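Design request, tokens follow.
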């Protein structure tokens, strides 16, 4: 792991549509999970040598200073670009220290991760949840561990991530599934969609959000196609024929699967709309606190 300089870490978001975040926080840059589809490889993000994890020097001191100086409280999102629970976090505990500061200065948190290491920090998440909104989004794209080993080679198995959701929700943390991407011709089938929704319910998940497709752009597309050639020979041609150089690659079965997705979510009582997810975990929390 390398160390890189940073002037600022907690930055204001342009809008709060994506799970109601007010701020973004990325302590780490790059990721070693090796997921074949990762959008963060795209050229537009400017992350060279993406598989090398780098940590921002003096990150905790910077975060402390920035949180202390912010007048407006809100929800701090982390994990959209680089997983805050990469393997190095177990040793350095920078995400844990950042959560301690988020708690100290009275902010909420929205976390994206594929790692079960997040269960280590349930104690802090519970303390934050006493005064501010908390949401944990655990990415799960397949309910089959064998496929998971191929497309997400250096990360916890899907079954282990479902167990992490159960541990979180059993402790009162609002957690659910980020079912994105859904890889066309690999994961866009009824058995996979139904299986993930069922397992999310059985493990206490409160929500599931999906777009039933994958995004592909420069650099990310080339990497993805390289991995398709390695593990799924012939599949690259189906993508080129079906999508060309399109950024958004929805499943060719999108309409049928979206209907199935909504039906299964309603069947198990899982929230799936962004507005309702935000309202449930955040707005109602603020309303409850305002009563006191």
């Amino acid at each position: 792991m390398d160390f890189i300089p940073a002037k600022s870490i907690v930055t204001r978001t342009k809008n709060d549509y994506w799970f109601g975040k007010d701020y973004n926080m990325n302590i780490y840059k790059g990721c070693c999970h090796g997921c074949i589809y990762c959008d963060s490889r795209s050229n537009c993000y400017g992350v060279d040598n993406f598989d090398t994890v780098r940590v921002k020097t003096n990150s905790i001191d910077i975060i402390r200073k920035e949180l202390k100086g912010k007048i407006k409280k809100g929800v701090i999102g982390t994990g959209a670009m680089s997983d805050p629970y990469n393997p190095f976090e177990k040793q350095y505990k920078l995400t844990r220290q950042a959560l301690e500061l988020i708690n100290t200065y009275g902010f909420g948190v929205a976390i994206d991760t594929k790692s079960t290491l997040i269960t280590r920090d349930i104690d802090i998440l519970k303390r934050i949840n006493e005064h501010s909104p908390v949401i944990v989004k655990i990415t799960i794209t397949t309910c089959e561990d064998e496929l998971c080993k191929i497309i997400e080679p250096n990360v916890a198995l899907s079954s282990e991530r479902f167990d992490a959701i159960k541990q979180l929700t059993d402790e009162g943390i609002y957690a659910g599934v980020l079912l994105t991407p859904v890889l066309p011709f690999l994961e866009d089938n009824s058995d996979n969609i139904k299986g993930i929704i069922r397992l999310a319910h059985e493990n206490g998940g409160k929500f599931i959000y999906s777009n039933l497709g994958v995004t592909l752009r420069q650099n990310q597309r080339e990497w993805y196609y390289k991995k398709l050639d390695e593990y799924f020979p012939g599949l690259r041609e189906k993508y080129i024929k079906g999508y060309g150089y399109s950024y958004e690659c929805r499943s060719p079965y999108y309409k049928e699967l979206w209907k199935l997705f909504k039906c299964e979510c309603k069947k198990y009582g899982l929230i799936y709309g962004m507005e309702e997810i935000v309202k449930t975990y955040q707005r109602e929390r603020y309303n409850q606190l305002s009563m006191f």
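Comment from the thread starter after seeing the answer: thanks! The first helix runs from residue 59 to 69.
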